[in-house]
Design brief:
27 strands; 5-stranded antiparallel sheet; binds adenosine-5'-diphosphate
């Protein structure tokens, strides 16, 4: 308390004379006193005053050696000489004295003064001597009463007067005065010495003011202040003490200090401790108000001393800590709440000081480290992790940035077990807002990591199994810059490199020199990056430089943000297929060529056979007409065989000519109406139709761009077959329909004939293939082959559906095209 270091407890500051300190107001060096023999002051008196006013009593030096002198000089002269010396000495003592000295006769007139008196009055010695002593004071009457008192009582002490300087300046003095006597013992006058107390008075005034100031400080203090005497009684209080005790100042003063506390014994022990040790700090007590209300206080107290340094009491200042205690209690409860929050957390929680030492932990932290709370607190946070440096970097980051999220660390249990955790941490602050430490919560992700790891391993195993299983595929992962990142067994097989010799190499080495020169590898990566995927089929190069026909799918891989971070390239070696295809293509070309040759041959042969055949047929028919019944029976039969054989051969040759003409001698395509074509076909077959009693119906049929003659031929052939392969027990029915499918018309010709077994579905379209007996069903086996060829010439295809004994449906498509 400031009050304790004030004037109360300070060193006594009195106006007492201090050696070597001149009194400025009294020094007057210019006015030196004159030598005079008239001073009749006895030595003994002067000595008496000298002792009173000088710190070192002195004796005249000549007196010490007086025995030596008296042997040579006559007694009278010796005495006179001694007196002269004594007077001179007295005079100089007088003059040396800094206090104003004066001698006064019985009439009150000044008989002598010293230089200090001259200075304080501002009058010369000569002026002063003979004048009234009392004239030089503000209160002459009091001055007169003073010296009269001396004459009356022999002496006065500390008689207060005020000397008036000639210029009006006032000097407060205390007079000490006594009578002095002549050699005969008669009272000769009064010797008066003034002590200038102006300075002392000023100091007293200052002290008075300081006291008043202290008092107001005391009163202004909101803390209850009290002073206690050595007997434990209250000597003073301030208003705050009145308020807290509910007692008036007057009531309190003089009563026992200890009476006002809930524990008087402890209060007593407190001020006794102050008296014993000089002070106490934060001594807790509880003040009891008169109405019972309790105030918790902390006392700071110290002893205080009077001017002389003597202990006079205890100054005690109480600080009301009820509020603070209440706040502390609230804080304690909050802490308890926090603590229970902390403890109920299943996550390991920890607080760390700025030095990285653990300041608190919860039970979960104890469990995960295997160390008790007491052991953990005060140790380095980073010590409990597999990577202490990373742990340290973590909490430093928190101090630096205020918080971290999902900071991965591995906690090490005392027994060596490792737990993977993610730390979320933030700084926390004290009441004043200063960073007090870091609060860190760990989330145990060991299980999650384990599950993730298991999943990852399983995926890896699966994918490596897959990669290895598909040995027909080279599956290569590429870095974003085109370097090979991984390589499977299929790649090894197809491209010839082992993984260890190719991983890290650029993938362009699988391209032909031409492709590399044209920048194809980079172009493919660019396309895959922009389009996501690229397919290619081309020659590639395997280890050793040989080429293989590769079908390649290059797919860009993206990270979570959609950024391409690599590629997967799946390559198949299709060299064998390519070779087979090329071969087929060659064969097909050959076949086509020989087919054409064959058709040409068939056409030429048929055409050339037609002429002699026509002769054979014509003349054998003539033979039959002219000679039937005129030769023997055998001859008639033989002629019939010739005629029939020639007719069959003519049919065959006509069919062959028709077949070979389809591809090479067809008409140009033109718009045709299929319903019209149907009518023409029916008209051409009118005898057969009439004879068989067949019913031919149709749905609406489209108009097409086609070879009308060939389409008519097509329908005619199908109708002929349907009639020919009818079931005898049922009247034949034919129905024609057409539907539009995709870019083509699909026609269907359905009959209710004998049907075809499924194994012949393909064979019946091949030339000269006949299923049914030649005796039973006449035919060349070319009809359906011609149909198929016509359909194919129009770009369509043909097939049959049938159920033996129920009927057949012949389907064919004619693409909806406007030109051939
Ligand atoms: P063919 O001159 O023998 O009729 P096709 O090429 O026209 O020669 O027919 C080949 C064979 O397909 C026929 O011999 C017959 O066995 C079978 N066939 C053709 N059309 C039908 C049909 N509508 N019903 C049953 N069988 C048929």
């Amino acid at each position: 308390m400031d009050a304790l270091t004030g004037p109360h407890s300070g060193k006594p500051q009195t106006a007492a004379a201090q050696p070597g300190r001149p009194r400025k107001t009294m020094v007057c060096p210019t006015s030196r006193p004159q030598e005079s023999d008239e001073v009749g002051i006895s030595f003994s008196l002067l000595v008496q005053f000298g002792i009173n006013y000088m710190h070192k009593p002195m004796r005249p030096p000549e007196l010490r050696g007086s025995a030596k002198v008296k042997r040579n000089i006559p007694a009278r002269k010796r005495e006179q000489e001694a007196l002269r010396r004594a007077n001179a000495y007295n005079r100089s003592l007088l003059e040396a004295n800094l206090d104003p000295l004066v001698t006064i006769g019985p009439d009150g007139k000044i008989t002598d003064v010293n230089a200090a008196t001259e200075a304080v009055t501002g009058c010369a010695r000569a002026t002063l001597i003979g004048t009234d002593f009392s004239d030089y004071f503000t209160d002459p009457e009091k001055a007169r009463a003073g010296y009269q008192q001396v004459f009356h009582e022999g002496l006065v002490r500390d008689y207060p007067l005020e000397l008036r300087h000639r210029d009006g300046h006032i000097t407060s003095v205390l007079y000490n005065a006594s009578i002095y006597r002549d050699e005969s013992g008669n009272v000769a006058g009064v010797f008066a010495a003034a002590r200038d107390i102006t300075e002392r008075k000023r100091e007293q005034e200052a002290l008075r003011q300081a006291n008043a100031y202290n008092r107001s400080l005391l009163e202004a203090s909101l803390d209850p202040l009290v002073t206690i005497g050595p007997d434990g009684k209250i000597t003073d209080v301030n208003a705050a003490t009145e308020a807290v005790t509910g007692c008036a100042r007057a009531t309190l003063i003089g009563t026992d200090f200890s009476d006002y506390f809930t524990d008087p014994e402890m209060a007593r022990a407190g001020y006794q401790q102050v008296f014993r040790e000089g002070l106490v700090r934060d001594y807790p007590l509880q003040l009891r108000h008169r109405d019972g209300y309790i105030t918790s206080v902390l006392y700071n107290a110290s002893i205080y001393r009077d001017e002389n340094g003597k202990v006079v009491g205890v100054f005690a200042a109480a600080r009301d800590i009820t509020e603070r205690e209440r706040a502390q209690e609230a804080l304690r409860q909050a802490n308890a709440y926090n603590r229970s929050l902390l403890e109920t957390s299943l996550d390991p929680l920890v607080t760390i000081g700025p030095d990285g030492k653990i300041t608190d932990v919860n039970a979960a932290t104890e469990a995960v480290t295997g160390c008790a709370r007491a052991t953990l607190i005060g140790t380095d946070f980073s010590d409990y992790f597999t990577d202490p440096e990373k742990a340290r970097a973590g909490y430093r980051q928190v101090f630096h940035e205020g918080l971290v999220r999902d900071y991965p660390l591995e906690l090490r249990h005392r027994d060596g077990r490792i737990r993977s955790v993610l730390y979320n941490a933030s700084i926390y602050r004290d009441e004043r807002g200063n960073v007090a430490g870091v609060f860190a919560a760990a989330r145990d992700i060991t299980e999650r990591k384990r599950a993730e790891e298991a999943l990852r391993q399983r995926e890896q195993r699966l994918s490596s199994m897959l990669l290895e299983a598909v040995r027909d595929y080279a599956i290569i992962f590429l870095e974003v810059d085109g370097r090979v990142a991984s390589w499977n067994k299929g790649a090894e097989r197809i491209k010839g490199y082992r993984a260890e010799e190719i991983v890290g190499q650029h993938f362009s080495r699988f391209y032909t020199p031409d492709d590399i020169a044209n920048g194809k590898p980079d172009r493919e990566l660019q396309i895959a990056t922009s389009e996501g995927r690229l397919e290619d089929e081309d020659w590639r190069v395997r280890k050793g430089g040989s080429r293989f026909w590769a079908s390649v799918v290059l797919t860009a891989l993206q990270d979570a943000g959609g950024k391409v971070n690599g590629y997967v390239k799946i390559t198949r070696d299709l060299t064998a297929r390519k070779q087979a295809e090329d071969e087929i293509k060659r064969y097909t070309e050959d076949l086509k060529r020989s087919n054409q040759e064959l058709e040409h041959f068939a056409y030429v042969a048929s055409h050339d056979l037609q002429e002699p055949l026509r002769t054979v047929a014509g003349f054998s028919q003539l033979l039959a007409q002219r000679y039937r019944g005129k030769l023997d029976a055998d001859a008639d039969e033989f002629i019939t065989f010739v005629v029939e054989g020639a007719t069959r051969m003519q049919n065959l040759i006509n069919d062959l000519l028709a077949f070979s003409r389809i591809g090479t001698r067809g008409n140009p395509f033109a718009p045709v109406d299929c319903e019209e074509i149907l009518q023409i076909a029916k008209e051409n077959l009118r005898f057969t139709i009439a004879e068989s009693g067949v019913t031919i119906t149709n749905d609406p049929l489209p108009a097409l761009v086609a070879d009308q003659t060939q389409l008519t031929q097509l329908f005619q052939n199908l109708f002929s077959n349907a009639i020919k392969f009818r079931r005898p027990e049922e009247a034949p029915c034919i129905h024609v329909s057409a539907v539009r499918l995709g870019g083509a018309w699909q026609f269907s010709v359905r009959d209710n004939g004998i049907g075809i077994a499924p194994q012949y579905f393909d064979r019946i379209f091949v030339i000269f293939q006949r299923l049914h007996g030649r005796e039973e069903y006449s035919g060349t086996g070319i009809g359906l082959a011609i149909c198929k060829k016509i359909v194919e010439r129009h770009g369509g295809r043909m097939w049959v559906e049938s159920e033996p004994g129920t009927g057949s449906t012949f389907h064919f498509t004619i693409p909806d095209q406007r030109r051939n």
